[in-house]
Write the structure tokens for this entry.
Amino acid sequence: MDPTDDAGREAPGARDETPTGLLSSAGEVLEGLPDAVVATAPDERIVFVNALAEELFGYPRAELLGRRVEMLWAERVRDRYTRNMRLYFATEHPMRFSAEVRGLRRDGSEFLGEMTWGIVQTVAGPLLVAIGRDISQRRVGEERLGAVAAMGVRALAGADPEELAHDAIDLVCGRLPVSRAEVRLAGRASIAPDGPIADSAERAVRVPIGARDELVIECERGLDDDEMGLVLAVANTLAAALERRRGEDQMRHDAVHDPLTGLPNRTLLRDRLEHALARSEREGGATGVMFVDFDNFKQINDDFGHAAGDAVLAELGNRLATAVRPADTVARLGGDEFVVVCEEVDEDVALALGRRLDEAIRVPLIVGGVEHGLSASIGIALGHSDPDALLRDADAASYRAKSGGGGRIELFH
């Protein structure tokens, strides 16, 4: 029988299929190594494989012995690997080195291998011995961790939470058996490029992002521990980024808002007033400033304590914000002094808004079981420029209202 097939390869069985012959003395050692082993003769044919090599490549030993070793290499790298192999055999001194290789399994699938190669001199001549393992999954894991790390870097750089949410969706859908993903952020519309995922979906998995948000994924199959670990790492990275951003947002908010009432403070009031006056100069129409000074508020603090006084101020601030128009600004300057900025008003509109504020203030309120009746002196000034002059004029009008007995509205002239 011709010992080669039509492609010039030796037919299976034409050579000894056991670790004898060229490798008889070393076969037992090579068989016991914890990695796959393939030995190739100078004629480029396989002379030895161990059991782990059978498992790695998917061939029984009988189908490998005597075949050309190139069958175990991905087709796109065969020419290069073949040239290198011939160079190794032609080199005078034995060579040993490690490299990543692209292997080819029996089913046609490729894998990434980490191989140590070396020319071994035997009594029958040199052999190229390759010892290695499949590192495809390890590399996938490293790439996944690298992607999470890159996302973490973006988070530390202050990336917008919605951008990070899109990063998270792209990461889990691109690197895991996940068909769809959705990030649900508290107080915002959910981020779901392919549409929201129903909680009743058969393979929906819900992963908390901190205490308030959620990552929902629709899996193509159950996730293994490593894959689920990636999902948790993504969720934790998102959670840290969102908490950091919210902390920064809260700091910015606190810097320009009154801690007791949550209303804009003097700094934000000034900014809003300057913008309103700039629009007045461009578009016409006056900007109104209303100075609200509560009458006899000190008596509440003296009689019932500062805690009761703070509760009354918080409720009054809420009433003022509810009484004005949505575009108007209500700010607390401090103590019991509040200011309202309203755009595009004339005297009649300003006075009508002042009366609405007065009515809201006069409704009795109950704090700690005690009913309090309040009134305020409200001063109104209109203008198109000079925020300092407007605030000063509104304050003067409020003082005039208080001097007249309080509980009045005065328009500055």
